[in-house]
Design brief:
Helix 1 packs across helix 2 (51-67). The chain is 34% helix and 17% strand. Strand 8 (156-160), helix 6 and strand 9 form a beta-alpha-beta unit. The protein has seven helices and nine strands. It is α/β, with parallel strands linked by helices. It has a six-stranded parallel beta sheet.
């Protein structure tokens, strides 16, 4: 199984703080049955992101992953505002290694004007756009037209497993189940920032089975 969204690289964002925590996250992922992880540190501003540190953390963690039978791939969780500084020719750097997928996130409170144009521009550059945790986006709570617009322009939706650990009356949980009912969900991922977060992924696996994490045709 593949986890397509994890902040397992230490020292580059609000995920793992050090190598020890990264290794603990690997062990927790392995316990869930994960054998491939896409490392997706937050990219809010390419001019401020420490790419060298990310590469060092990746290279240091990789042997630990291999000993557990886990393959690590590099990727990013690209914030919408970061797109303004990324040329189409640079897009391959930010896609998941081994695929055309680019993981895109928005602010929880709003969808920016002209978001469709920005996404179609990325798509024309050869990327498949995966929308990170749409169940968090408040504008989608009651705006099903926007959900369908995302679907109509070919976006993939990735739910965070933590959505299914929320209370019964949680709007995030309700939207997550609605997206599943709409057949809009391509991926469920951990979005793990610590080893403990993988308990949410296990709950999602218990609810939906391993198929929710096996839509891996585009990631070889």
């Amino acid at each position: 199984m593949i986890d397509v969204h994890s902040h397992i690289l230490y020292g580059v964002d609000d995920g793992a703080a050090d190598l020890e925590e990264s290794v603990a996250m690997l062990a927790a992922a392995k316990k869930c049955g994960i054998d491939k992880i896409i490392c997706t540190p937050h990219l809010h501003d390419k001019n401020k992101f420490d790419f060298d540190m990310a590469e060092r953390a990746f290279c240091e963690l990789k042997p630990h992953a291999e000993r557990l039978g886990i393959e690590l791939r590099m990727g990013y969780e690209v914030h919408y505002l970061a797109l303004g500084d990324i040329a189409v020719s640079e897009l391959p750097r930010y896609k998941f290694d081994g695929s055309d997928i680019l993981l895109l996130e928005f602010d929880d409170d709003m969808l920016p004007p002209m978001w469709e144009n920005a996404i179609t521009g990325i798509q024309r550059g050869g990327a498949t756009v995966m929308i990170a945790h749409p169940e968090r986006y408040k504008p989608l709570f009651n705006d099903y037209d926007s959900i369908e617009r995302f679907m109509d322009i070919g976006c993939e939706f990735q739910l965070d497993a933590a959505a299914f650990s929320r209370g019964l009356f949680s709007k995030e949980r309700r939207l997550a189940f609605l997206l599943i009912e709409m057949d809009a969900v391509h991926w469920i991922a951990s979005d793990a920032h610590s080893a403990d977060d993988y308990r949410h992924l296990q709950k999602a696996i218990d609810l939906f089975g391993t198929t929710a994490l096996k839509d891996g045709a585009a990631i070889n």
